[in-house]
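User: Design a sequence. Structure:
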């Protein structure tokens, strides 16, 4: 949590930007996973609520009445049963004091506040809800059906929150650096323990444990898969195979809910093959290129296409692509290799403010994405960079068998792709390298004091340093997994993507 002054001044700026009406910011509630008193999904406070009201308890709502210059933290104090089972927490009054809010009220009063405002035809601002219980709450309070709530959400509030949360302050950057340290430990743990014979699930479980040990939770469900060509490939019980690559995309949230998001792709046996290296070096070049281009005033969509250009040119050199690069990019041919955008905003949400709609977060009038074109329609960030923005830089090259087959059959972009050569890469998988870029006054830098190894020689060296891995395998791992080993060929299995 930051100092009281941080929250006081953030709300003051929000009031100025939204100008009039009543702002209601809903905090999140507990979510039971399988039965009411057992198996809560980890509690995660709403990020915008955290940004303005700072408190991590469930069952809170922040109300900012701009016209009457009145701020209220709404919530019920916990009762003796809660204290018996979970221990004591601060009262709602104390929590309000900690973030400089003058008034508190019990939850039942929220309905009266809304009724009064509706009666006098005042504007009630709320953000697009993404959880079902909050949608029901809004329906009860305002009579707006859940299907209509996204459209009824306040554009003025969305724009104000996006404006403020997009630019990270010094104290937020400290938090992001801390999250990056957790991410560093997650990734180096994966690299240290990965070896043939372990399962994807085992390594990802260890990686998640690092996040839980040093922070609050993972930034998003960890991707750890030999099927790197599946964008969000969830870890399976498949055994890691000698000679293949594994893609690890994960990050940790620190205790103040700032995220990290990095991806590494590395050889399971510690040594790249020449074919893997040929593709890897292209991704490495595209990844590093952003460092020289991204700075205030530059459109991130241009950084994206600079990476696409590098990838397409190198694919031509490898014989997988052909033709004029400009024409190929205009036709979207590069998207067979890179079907997603170069990156997204990152902060308290891993896809920062995604709940407010990407079109407001990542774009503006001059950078509307071409929603008709495959690949380009997946961009999450295109607008001009400003000092204090944090964006991910995550190019990748993927060989997606179903996509290659589909384009081949339809002769889509056939002037720019050598489908016969691509056939031979259908067993390759995919490579992504991702780091988090802070836009500085006149350029950019990666967040995180120590770089997770990604240059091939560093990756291979870190493998060498990891020591004798087989003794570890024979002792703990075999004991733990006796009887539940997966015997299926991972290449034949169906893997669901998230
Ligand atoms: Mn990312």
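Assistant: Done.
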């Amino acid at each position: 949590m930051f100092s009281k002054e941080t929250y006081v001044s953030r709300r003051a700026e929000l009031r100025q930007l939204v100008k009039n009406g009543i702002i209601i910011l809903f905090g999140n509630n507990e979510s039971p996973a399988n039965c009411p008193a057992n198996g809560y999904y980890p509690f995660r406070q709403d990020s915008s609520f955290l940004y303005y009201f700072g408190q991590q308890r469930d069952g809170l709502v922040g109300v900012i009445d701009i016209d009457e210059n009145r701020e209220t933290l709404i919530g019920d104090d916990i009762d003796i049963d809660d204290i018996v089972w979970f221990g004591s927490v601060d009262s709602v009054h104390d929590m309000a004091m900690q973030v400089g809010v003058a008034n508190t009220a019990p939850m039942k009063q929220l309905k009266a506040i809304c009724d009064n405002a509706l009666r006098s035809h005042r504007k009630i601002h709320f953000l697009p809800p993404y959880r079902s219980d909050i949608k029901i709450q809004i329906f009860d309070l305002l009579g707006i059906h859940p299907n209509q709530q996204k459209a009824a959400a306040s554009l003025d509030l969305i724009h104000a929150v996006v404006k403020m949360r997009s630019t990270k302050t010094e104290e937020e950057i400290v938090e992001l650096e801390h999250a990056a340290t957790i991410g560093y430990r997650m990734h180096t743990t994966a690299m240290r323990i990965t070896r043939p014979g372990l399962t994807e699930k085992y390594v990802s479980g260890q990686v998640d444990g690092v996040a839980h040990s040093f922070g609050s939770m993972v930034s998003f469900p960890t991707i750890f898969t030999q099927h790197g060509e599946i964008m969000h490939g969830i870890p399976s019980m498949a055994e890691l195979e000698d000679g293949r690559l594994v893609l690890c995309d994960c990050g940790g949230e620190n205790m103040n809910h700032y995220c990290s998001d990095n991806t590494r792709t590395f050889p399971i046996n510690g040594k790249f093959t020449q074919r893997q290296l040929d593709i890897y070096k292209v991704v490495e070049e595209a990844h590093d290129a952003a460092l020289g281009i991204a700075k205030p005033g530059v459109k991130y969509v241009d950084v994206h296409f600079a990476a696409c250009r590098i990838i397409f040119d190198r694919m031509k050199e490898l014989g997988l692509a052909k033709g004029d690069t400009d024409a190929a990019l205009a036709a979207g041919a590069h998207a067979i290799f890179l079907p997603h955008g170069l990156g997204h905003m990152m902060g308290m949400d891993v896809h920062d403010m995604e709940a407010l709609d990407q079109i407001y977060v990542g774009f503006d009038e001059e950078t509307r994405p071409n929603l008709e074109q495959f690949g380009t329609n997946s961009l999450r960030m295109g607008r001009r960079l400003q000092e204090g923005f944090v964006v991910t830089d995550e190019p990748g090259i993927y060989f997606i068998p179903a996509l290659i087959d589909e384009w081949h059959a339809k002769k889509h972009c056939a002037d720019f792709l050598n489908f016969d050569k691509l056939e031979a890469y259908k067993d390759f998988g995919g490579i992504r390298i991702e780091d988090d870029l802070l836009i500085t006054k006149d350029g950019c830098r990666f967040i995180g004091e120590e770089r997770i190894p990604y240059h091939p020689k560093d990756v291979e060296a870190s493998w060498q340093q990891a020591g004798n891995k087989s003794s570890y395998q024979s002792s703990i791992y075999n004991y733990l997994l006796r009887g539940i080993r997966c015997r299926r060929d991972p290449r034949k299995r169906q893997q669901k993507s998230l």
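The longest helix spans residues 170-193. The first strand starts at residue 22 and ends at 26.
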